[in-house]
Inverse folding.
């Protein structure tokens, strides 16, 4: 990694009190500390922004980060938002670990929601224990199908998966738009752009009466455990690790590169699809235009904030989920636009990338030259 | 006006490698200078320092007695130093004209006139208004040259300019360079191609392993003397004892071709050879002549026609490296840190990269860590790797110990054939001796070796038969007894012997 070192070498005039030196090896402790540093810096910068906007910084931060989760309802909402973020980020970490840059999880989520929603609509007037599993499976398959497009194009036509997966996001959103306005719109729905309500048998059960947190959280937790097992205990995980460090080495070791690319995309797509199922069969209960407030994109931040480690991703998804809730509270109590939430998400990623500099370099105090 | 460029005691150190070790050189306009050296000799670092891309740790650069502070490529441009890199820096979708004016603040119209007059003067014919992607490699290079000429440079540096050119384009380039030189532009020409140096240049500076080894007039040199200076010649000739090589053929390569889509790679042209059991075939050559491609074709990283490689009566040309390992072939690539091992992974994880079915590292898709650890411990003790901690990240091993680990990983299963590429590159004397002894022992056990190396001494010491690769073609295969370093020098430089 080449960084513009020379401008930073001399921080205080001629006397060079601080020098930036390359570390002999990336620091393991810093590896896990930088996400915390990034969150801290985000809070500082956020406070500063609130101050400039004319709010009291501490009060504003309290509305943003503490008030929303101060009661049971708030905690339930936190888990509700963290669930899809965690699930998608786990899936994405399969891709990112192995040097595949799938940034179209939002599209895979949407397509998973379309397929599972379509299946749920087939059963809209039926009840039965078998309905929910079919709906869930359909969502996973939908996500996988959609993720297979950039994977196949990458392996057989050498296309760039970043562009393809990103552009497919908009395609899937338009397909959803067409379906809920057109063929799938609720015949008794007064032309609102939404489908019928799913039957109760197609809904994920709620965990607590009166709270919205649903059984989807078990899917996320299962994904955490399974991914941990795959990453650290299986040949597939080992191959992903090797490919992530060096594709040349993977080739030399004789790993089947194409097969792995397709596999990690399928896993990633399945997770995003399941997140889509969780949304429409959990809190929403039908298909409409906005099945996801950009969970698929935000999960990219979650994956990196969690250092692509399953446990790290759990914490990261909780942190990032707060920004969703905080943005809503801040809008209600302080009349700040809810897009502030995205500003915070952006800042987290920005500060994380910036503090990654510390992985490879350290400050060294060398004293005055006099 | 006379231009004088002086490099004074320049040193640049990277972690684990001294790229330029106290290099001092002086150039005067009116001559064409060659900077010659193998890949990794430090010549690219030196010219990057001259063009402001890299800042040296120590040393000064003077242009006409003025000490230059080159902190960025812009500083180099301001000081009339122009540079044409090996990989072009052009925007493919912009027009030629747009590419030419992109870093200039002059008026478009006056620039157009200037460019037209430059093209007329040097007989370049390029349509200024078509996108760069429609140009041939030679034309793209001309665009880069014109971009330098707009600024009327005093110094023009060409980094490996002919690697993507056809013969025709090369001779055109040489004519232009001679013209520039006559007009007083100081030309520094970086290359590892000896013939070009003989053809074009007046003086030659040779670099090896970061050090300047010689500066001389071309008229006092020939292909062979330059080749020897480049790869380093050491007169001690310890040869291994002539082993009893069986007549039992182990591997046979027939009509092997490789045509690369990447213009920076070398095509392999009709390779034929065979190796018997217990024999070591050395392949000599100046780096960049197809060695890397040949290694990859032999290892299976690049697949070829099934029948082109016959190993132990099996045709394995279409098998990947892992499948070839099952036939008891082992590979030790040149690049220890980026290919043969992963520095960020632990020793035992690196051992698991080489995964024979019989070694049972992975059962039903699960990692069998216990097995890998046992195996790693055995490698460490059998091959003298200087650590007893297999949880150590391999980046903490010295180059020699890492190479022992890699050799150990490849050899512990007693393969019938080892294919290795520059196995002692960058190692200290002790490690080199150890590796050499190991390779000799392999032959003594009636196993075979294909040794691709740019180190002539090493080849003369270890090989039973030697061939030279030049521009992707193998010379005839000679018995090691009849080979002298003079003969090798001629062949490496692209010459012919009877």
């Amino acid at each position: 990694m080449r960084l513009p070192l020379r401008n930073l070498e001399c921080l205080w005039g001629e006397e060079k009190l601080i020098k930036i030196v390359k570390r002999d090896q990336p620091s393991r402790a810093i590896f896990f500390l930088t996400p915390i540093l990034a969150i801290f810096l985000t809070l500082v910068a956020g406070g500063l922004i609130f101050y400039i906007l004319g709010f009291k910084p501490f009060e504003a931060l309290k509305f943003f980060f503490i008030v929303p989760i101060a009661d049971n309802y708030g905690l339930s909402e936190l888990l509700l938002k963290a669930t899809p973020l965690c699930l998608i980020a786990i899936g994405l970490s399969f891709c990112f670990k192995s040097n595949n840059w799938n940034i179209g999880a939002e599209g895979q989520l949407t397509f998973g929601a379309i397929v599972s929603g379509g299946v749920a609509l087939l059963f809209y007037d039926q009840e039965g224990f078998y309905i929910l599993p079919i709906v869930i499976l359909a969502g996973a398959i939908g996500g996988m199908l959609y993720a297979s497009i950039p994977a196949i194009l990458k392996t057989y036509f050498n296309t760039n998966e970043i562009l393809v997966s990103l552009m497919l996001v908009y395609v899937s959103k338009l397909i959803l738009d067409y379906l809920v306005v057109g063929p799938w719109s609720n015949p008794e729905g007064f032309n609102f752009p939404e489908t019928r309500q799913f039957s109760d048998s197609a809904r994920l059960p709620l965990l607590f009466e009166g709270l919205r947190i649903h059984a989807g959280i078990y899917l996320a937790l299962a994904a955490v455990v399974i991914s941990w097992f795959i990453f650290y205990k299986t040949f597939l995980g080992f191959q992903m690790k090797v490919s992530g460090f060096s594709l040349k080495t993977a080739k030399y070791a004789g790993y089947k590169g194409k097969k792995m690319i397709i596999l990690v995309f399928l896993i990633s797509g399945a997770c995003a699809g399941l997140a889509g199922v969780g949304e429409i069969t959990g809190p929403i209960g039908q298909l409409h235009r906005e099945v996801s407030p950009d969970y698929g994109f935000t999960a990219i931040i979650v994956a990196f904030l969690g250092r692509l480690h399953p446990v790290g991703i759990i914490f990261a998804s909780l942190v990032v989920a707060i920004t969703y809730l905080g943005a809503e509270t801040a809008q209600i109590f302080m009349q700040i636009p809810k897009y502030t939430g995205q500003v915070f998400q952006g800042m987290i990623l920005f500060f994380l990338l910036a503090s990654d500099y510390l992985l490879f370099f350290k400050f060294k105090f060398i004293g005055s030259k006099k | 006006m006379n231009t004088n460029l002086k490099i004074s005691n320049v040193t640049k150190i990277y972690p684990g490698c001294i790229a330029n070790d106290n290099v001092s050189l002086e150039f005067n306009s009116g001559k064409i200078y060659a900077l010659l050296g193998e890949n990794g000799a430090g010549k690219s670092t030196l010219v990057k320092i001259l063009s402001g891309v890299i800042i040296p740790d120590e040393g000064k650069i003077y242009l006409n007695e003025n000490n230059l502070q080159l902190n960025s490529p812009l500083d180099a441009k301001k000081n009339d130093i122009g540079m044409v890199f090996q990989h072009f820096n052009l925007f493919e979708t912009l027009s030629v004209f747009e590419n030419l004016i992109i870093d200039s603040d002059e008026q478009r119209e006056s620039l157009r006139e200037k460019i037209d007059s430059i093209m007329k003067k040097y007989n370049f014919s390029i349509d200024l208004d078509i996108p760069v992607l429609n140009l041939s490699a030679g034309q793209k290079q001309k665009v880069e040259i014109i971009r330098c000429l707009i600024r009327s440079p005093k110094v023009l540096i060409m980094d490996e300019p002919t690697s993507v050119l056809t013969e025709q384009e090369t001779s055109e380039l040489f004519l232009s360079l001679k013209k520039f030189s006559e007009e007083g532009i100081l030309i520094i020409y970086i290359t590892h191609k000896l013939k070009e140096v003989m053809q074009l240049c007046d003086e030659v500076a040779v670099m090896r392993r970061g050090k300047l080894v010689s500066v001389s007039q071309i008229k006092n040199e020939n292909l062979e003397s330059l080749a020897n200076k480049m790869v380093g010649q050491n007169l001690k000739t310890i040869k291994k004892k002539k082993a009893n090589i069986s007549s039992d053929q182990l591997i046979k390569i027939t009509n092997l071709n490789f045509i690369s889509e990447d213009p920076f790679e070398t095509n392999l042209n009709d390779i034929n050879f065979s190796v018997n059991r217990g024999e070591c075939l050395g392949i000599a050559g100046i780096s960049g002549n197809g060695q890397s491609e040949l290694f990859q074709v032999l290892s299976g990283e690049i697949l070829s026609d099934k029948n082109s490689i016959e190993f132990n009566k099996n045709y394995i040309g279409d098998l990947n490296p892992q499948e070839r390992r099952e036939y008891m072939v082992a590979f030790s690539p040149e690049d220890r840190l980026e290919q043969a091992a992963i520095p960020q992974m632990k020793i035992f994880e690196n051992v698991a990269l080489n995964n024979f079915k019989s070694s049972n590292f992975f059962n039903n898709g699960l990692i069998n860590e216990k097995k890998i650890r046992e195996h790693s411990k055995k490698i460490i003790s059998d091959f003298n790797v200087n650590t007893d901690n297999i949880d150590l990240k391999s980046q903490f091993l010295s180059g020699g110990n890492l190479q022992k680990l890699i050799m150990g990983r490849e050899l512990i299963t007693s393969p019938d054939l080892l294919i290795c590429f520059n196995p002692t590159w960058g190692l200290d004397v002790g490690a080199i001796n150890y590796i050499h002894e190991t390779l000799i022992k392999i032959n003594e056990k009636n196993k075979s070796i294909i040794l691709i190396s740019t180190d002539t001494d090493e080849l003369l010491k270890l090989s039973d038969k030697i061939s030279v690769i030049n521009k992707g073609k193998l010379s005839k295969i000679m018995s090691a007894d009849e080979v002298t370093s003079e003969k090798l020098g001629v062949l490496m430089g692209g010459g012919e012997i009877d």
